[in-house]
Write a structure and sequence with these properties.
This protein is of the alpha+beta class. It has 15 helices and 26 strands. The longest helix is centred in the C-terminal third of the chain and has 18 residues.
Length: 550
Amino acid sequence: MHKKLTALLMCPAVLLPGCSLFEKEESDGSGYRFTYTLTENPDSLDPQIARNSAAFTVLRNMMQGLLEEQPDGTLTYGVCSQYNVTEDGLRYTFTLRDDSYWYYDENKNDRIDDGESWQVTAEDFVFAFHRLFQDETKSPYREDFRCIKGGAEVIDGDASADSIGIYAQSSNTLVFELAEPCAEFLTLLCTPAAMPCNREFFEKTGGKYGLDEDSVISNSGFYMTKWFYDPYGSDNLIYMRENTANSSAQKVYPSNVTFLIRKSQEEAEAEFEAENSDIIATPHKDDKYNEINGYNVSSWKSMTLGFILNEEWEAFKSIDIRQAFSLSITRENFPDTDSADVVGAYGIIPPDTRLGTTTYNSYSAGNIIPQSSLEEADRLFQKGMHELNLTSLPAEDVLVCEGSVSEDDLYEILQTWQSLFGFYAGVETVPESEFQQRLQDKDYSVALCSITGKRNSPVSVLETFGTGNNDFGYSDPALDQLLLAADDARDLQELSQICRQAEQVIADKYIFLPVFYKNMYLIYKNTNRDINYDPYSGVIDFRHAKYYGS
């Protein structure tokens, strides 16, 4: 290790968003302190086990893997400076930059003047992947990397984690050996699970790695000086400062980032409304945020809203009745415009989902869900009712999570069910926590669920339906097999075909009935620029964010 001394003035923590460290003539947008509200506390800042969106956002700003995925799907260098892949797709060799540093400020005294920095090496990645595969780590991500040579054997309990195909050829040369080609391997290396872990620092934390401000370390744009969370308090936050140990090689524009920690989307939106935060990511469309009023609004159709039909409810034991309900939904009646908050959904995977730099739909054109047919819906409904010896359906409410969709968007569908099937359905809107519990308890007949991925990938969206991956108890061995096959796809074309088959398997069971593709929005004042956001993982990257206000 060596000590790297720099000095940086501090914008006082009490200043509101908008504090700039420099004079107004500063023209490159740097020096601003951004504030953003997380809707939950990070569950852990250990990249190999972190699960929630809050953790992913903080990690993106303080840690860096070999590669990084940009909003358009292109891959850029992170810690590595170059890489090559053998023709058979089984060996990846990465050369690491010699100006990428770990930084840790033990005293947290708001000045980078006595912290320590030391170089990120290939061994840091080897150690991270060994941890990823160790049983005691309990990482939820090792299945994602089972393509690594020996990975499947470790997962099956037939080998030790240190036998997997990753090794340091030198301090700055890292090699992966795969058992089978993996079309998404480079993209997977952009996820938090593939970030490095320094063995010496990890062991010094004494089992608390990633759990508090003294047990986290930075190798990217910002480092943490404060992580305060009281589950009964209201002033919870994470405070981060520019990491000048790394910003000379990869420029970081903001001087500070403050993450307010709140308990709900509603609280986050209230902070934005009160101008206590600079940015809001929200599924809610609000017309007052527009260009005329000085706001930049970006949107992505990154969610699929659909009805979950509870098979334990008597009528839905019949696949004919379930199919009838699907065919009765006139998806084509919903406006198909760029500005519409929701449009009709004809597949499981939302339209802004990518494979590489291209949308998934460009690989797999055509609808999974057929257009409505009220005549066929009526025929199938009568057939199912006869087979179940039912004469009518009891009145039920559709279970809806607060804020997911306007009741007006459901009105036409519910009216059709009433007139066609004699099914009188209202809407029961409940808070998210109750909604999730009701799903788990099977305490509903019809529920409107939002489906998206943990990353922008059709595989990630489909994994929501994998056995044990959802709150509504969906499970299908055929789908699970296709998800395993996706790990071994040799190229994106083959991967798209597997995903297409998986979509069809889900659609043909008529347990999840896609209804809408729904927008996710990112909103901020038009004085801000270059704020990168992933509407799937929920990650916001502030490292290149700029402010051009007065």
